[in-house]
Amino acid sequence: MRAEVGPMTRNIHITSEVAEAQTNGGHIKFLYGFKSVQVENVELTNLGNPLITGRYPLHYHMCENLAEKMIYTGDSYLRKNSIHHSQFRCITIHGTHNSQIQNNICYNTVGHGLFIEDGGEKHTLFDGNLALGQIPWTGPITHPVTGTLPSDRKPVTFWITNPLTKMKNNVAAGGETGLFVDNKLLANQTVRNVYNELNPRMTQTDPNSERVPMVFDRTTGNLAHHVK
Q: What is the pLDDT of residue 197?
């Protein structure tokens, strides 16, 4: 018998005190203008809140281009972290280009796991991540008041919305769906008129943006198994 194995504990542990049957976990959000973000070898538990928009364990939020060295003078990455027993999601990329998500473990989390939010996020790197056991959300959905989407009732481990995404050596196991490429609608379904099924836009919130074929920038060595 073969199984996926990964270390769950870390010396640095960030958690929330969440009452039984409650979902009000804490969250870590990175906003535009920092010098660098380097989260490495950290254990995160009980984070995220599905009842409030934008509350995830690790969240790049509208940071624009992390490769712009006039703003982001140091390297930024989220790597070798263990995110488990999350109240909502694992890692979310929103309005941010060139993010590096490497060698993380995402286990037993509610809703979609590693999540590209709107579709305009370019050159995201997912490399060597192990994600498994994503759990369906069963509570209320009143988006955008809540962070949950109708699709969170059948969660996807890797939710990809931009063709310029690098997927290398990742594993998805034991959830509803390992990988989903949304080339028609944004995850939150707010700008659906921008999309074309075969030729999405480079910047998918801009109807005048250049069209690109719906393919990944680089996809190799990925594996999905024991998904429904």
A: 42
